[in-house]
Amino acid sequence: MDSIGVLLTCPMLPYLQQELEKRFRLFEFWQFPQRTQFLEEHSGSIRAVVGNISAGADAELIEALPKLEIVASYSVGLDKIDLGKCREKGIRVTNTPDVLTEDVADLVIGLCLAVLRRICASDKYVRSGEWKKGDFKLTTKFTGKTVGIIGLGRIGTAIAKRAEAFDCPISYCSRTVKPDCKYKYYPSVVELASNCHILIVACPLTPETHHIINREVIDALGPKGVLINIGRGPHVDEPELVSALVEGRLGGAGLDVFEHEPEVPEELFGLENVVLLPHVASATVETRNAMADLVIGNLEAHFMNKPLLTPVV
Amino acid sequence: MSSLPEPGTEPGSGRPDVLVHRFRSFDLPFHASLNDHFTILDPWTDSPPDEPAHAFLARRAGRARALVCVGPTTLPADTLRLLPSLRVVIGTSAGVDHIDLRECRRRGIAVTNAGAAFAEDVADYAVALLLDVLRRISAADRYLKEGLWLKSGNYPLGSKLGGKRVGIVGLGNIGSQVAKRLQPFGCDIAYNSRSKKPSFPFPYHATVHDLAANSDVLVLCCALTEETHHVINREVMTVLGDRGVIINVGRGSLIDENELVQFLVRGELGGAGLDVFEDEPNVPKELFGLDSVVLSPHRAVITPESFEAMRELTVSNLKAFFVNEPLSCLVRLE
Fold first, then answer.
1. What is the DSSP letter of B33?
2. Residue B68: enclosing H or E segment and its boundaries?
3. Looking at CA atoms only, how far is residue A3 from chain B in angstroms?
4. How far is CA A236 from CA A222, B55, B199, in A?
5. Spans in chain B with pLDDT lower than 70
6. Which of B53, B49, B45, B51 has the alpha carbon at shortest distance from B75?
7. What's the pLDDT score for residue B13?
């Protein structure tokens, strides 16, 4: 298989790169600043693309690789891949579902607790050396708070299971009502936001869910409400969110994703009720290795004419 | 013949004397509501500025049968000896290690604590610290806010909680709430406690050392007593290992703090989430530069709900005491 050309769109986990190099002829896209020249020279041998949340496979790239057979994404999110174009050309697409579900759900709970109980702000206070005995501010209890989840797929369900252990009543909004689901369904995000204390974005990014968190939803969530986003930055109207937080119209936020990563609005940096993370929801050693194994497994299966492990297209 | 007023009551008022014992900087958030039912004696507000506290107590608190001990205010034998009528100490914190329990036992003074009022908030906080340490939440938040995501790229990978072996030290109110919360995260839970709890489905280890040898994480939820002082020592930390994590929401002195700092600085322990320290508010400065630790200024119970529960418990125990009804949350005095 080592003559099969695989294009890696940007630097990824060293373990993944090593395993790809062992099996295939690996092209590191970022090492070739002259893209056109590179593609002219090598497009004929590239039969697979490995992309991620930063750099996937858009129409332009797909068109430039006439021998492309499969796009294996080192992510569960597919918003950086032109799925329509792939279908049109019969190109297979795989992602990394399930292996990262637990880590993402764990981080959501971690963010809820960090925001409500002011963990990060407290840590900063102690590190400043300024702790004086008897100095404390009330923080918000997490147990028993109402939790609203947008998107009750694998990740949304895992979040709900964890929040239930804290006696949080769970409600959700989804494209469709889930049958046999014990959680309360709301047909719109605004209604969900009006009826929960903590609102969590856990749905895929599609044209329909772009800016699903807008001014109306933020107003409905209110000055005591908290927003947690582990979906995609474009799920949220970021300027609206920033002004709501700065003006105190929203109670707090825990954000792992942003509209223009790695740029993050600096107005948020000084707010104690805001926790900002550099897209780490699946960023554990265990999970990234498991995701890499899935990418390798899918590519091997494809080139050995076996069924793909986690196909999307 | 008119009946004699009950000792500790102002004639005619029906509001028995209750002494509030506190550090000057600590106050009861519900001081006012106690006045409805009791005559509150407070050296900080009721005695003239030049009168020392012990003189006030001797002069005014002789008939007080009940004392509310606010937060961690030390209640030594010396103070107790100034209160000849004292029959009950109502503690407003979960711990009672700041109260001279031996003297209370000698005098037959009952002691109650407020552990049941706080258990959920403390359990939440323990899980919060654990998730923060493993997933580097505070460290990554710091990294981003210092502009490093732009400058230096992605933050290093954290560690998954699922599949970790979590050992709970002390399976009382708080420990059992921690266990309940961790179950859906896919952790393997085990525990050590003074006695085995047959109703709990988790493996029991007879010693903390044994528990540590079989755990990736230790969560300290037990009371500080002579037996548990420095229960987390060099041997326990060694056997926990260099990927091991310790979460402490109990008391600082459960851990040999000097050893802990050395282990963390040398990378011989994976991380720690600490809400309590041996000499609060002093925290070893060597910890300030470590991303593997999360530091908190003893705030696990600081929510409106815990304070309200603490108020309810204090008032109901005081009321029960003065009508000779059973008290809740009695501390077993050994």
1. H
2. strand B66-69
3. 32
4. 16, 64, 46
5. 1-13
6. B53
7. 56
**What confidence score (pLDDT) does residue B2 get?**
45
Contact B144 A264 (CB under 8 A): yes
Locus of tokens 């003006």: A247
Annotate chain A with three-state secondary structure.
CCCCEEEECCCCCHHHHHHHHHHCEEEEHHHCCCHHHHHHHHHHHEEEEEECCCCCECHHHHHHCCCCCEEEECCCCCCCECHHHHHHHCCEEECCCCCCHHHHHHHHHHHHHHHHCCHHHHHHHHHCCCCCCCCCCCCCCCCCCCEEEECCCHHHHHHHHHHHCCCCCEEEECCCCCCCCCCEECCCHHHHHHCCCEEEECCCCCCCCCCCECHHHHHHHCCCCEEEECCCHHHECHHHHHHHHHCCCCCEEEECCCCECCECCHHHCCCCCEEECCCCCCCEHHHHHHHHHHHHHHHHHHHCCCCCCCECC
What would the mean pLDDT of A222-240 be, rounded to a whole number? 98
Mean pLDDT (whole number) for A119-142: 92
Q: A203 to chain B, minimum CA–CA distance in Å? A: 21
User: Which residues are within 8 A (CB) of B122 and not within 5 positions of it... i.e. 6 or more apart?
Assistant: B94, B174, B177, B221, B249, B300, B301
Of A35-39, A66-70, B86-90, which gets the smallest average pLDDT? A35-39
In the numeric block, which tokens belong to residue A170?
A: 């769970």
Provide the number of CB pairs (under 8 Å) joining chain A to chain B.
176
For B226, the token pair is 């002579």
Mean pLDDT to the nearest integer, A247-269 = 98
Closest CA to A124 of B257, B294, B125, B292: B294
Q: How close B229 gets to chain A, by Cα (Å)? A: 22
| pLDDT greater than 80 at residue A205 | yes
**A107-A149-A186 Cα angle (round to 5):** 175
Residue A1: the pLDDT is 73
Of B156, B155, B135, nearest to B145 by C-alpha is B155
In the block, tokens 């223009």 appear at: A260
Q: What is the pLDDT of residue B4?
A: 53
| Amino acid found at A274 | V
User: What pLDDT shows up at residue B1?
Assistant: 45
CB contact under 8 A, A143 and B120: yes
CB of B165 closer than 8 Å to CB of B190: yes
The predicted pLDDT at position B53 comes to 83
Q: What is the pTM of this model?
A: 0.92
Model confidence band, residue A135 (pLDDT cutoffs 50, 70, 90): confident
Can you tell me the distance from the alpha carbon of A191 to that of A219, in angstroms, rounded to the nearest whole number?
11
Cβ–Cβ below 8 Å for B158 and A280: yes
Active site residues of B: 251, 280, 298
**Which phi and psi (to 5°) does residue B248 adopt?**
-120, 110
ipTM, 2 dp:
0.93
Average pLDDT over residues A61-69: 97
